[in-house]
Specification:
4 helices; globular; alpha+beta
Length: 112
């Protein structure tokens, strides 16, 4: 996995959510993703997904995992709670926001 690959993945997620924003209705959350040492912030607010620069806002929830596990999570092949319990996913911050993200991800075709 290269930084460029992850950058493209995050942009695809942003586009997919913005093309169908209904599942994020009512959300106001900043997620920080630490994937194989690369860091991305995404805000889900006002039915819009937006990639942020690192300094834009404090994250409500940080998810740390490998790119391989991130892809499995996006594709619904890795359950977030199982990943957390087995150490494949580390979460800092609001655990309920992490659970909400998993339920949102399931509503999209993120087979990236």
């Amino acid at each position: 996995m290269t930084a460029r690959t992850l950058d493209v993945t995050m942009q695809k997620i942003e586009k997919e959510i913005n093309d169908n924003p209904d599942p994020i209705s009512g959300m106001d959350t900043v997620y920080k993703f630490e994937i194989d040492g690369e860091v991305f912030h995404m805000r889900l607010k006002d039915q819009k997904a937006e990639l942020l620069s690192e300094s834009d806002k404090q994250a409500d929830c940080t998810l740390k995992m490998s790119y391989d596990n991130f892809q499995k999570f996006l594709n619904g092949k890795l359950n977030g709670m199982t990943a957390f319990m087995t150490g494949k996913l580390k979460i800092d911050g609001d655990m309920t926001k992490a659970l909400k993200l998993e339920s949102v991800v399931k509503k999209y075709d993120l087979n990236i």
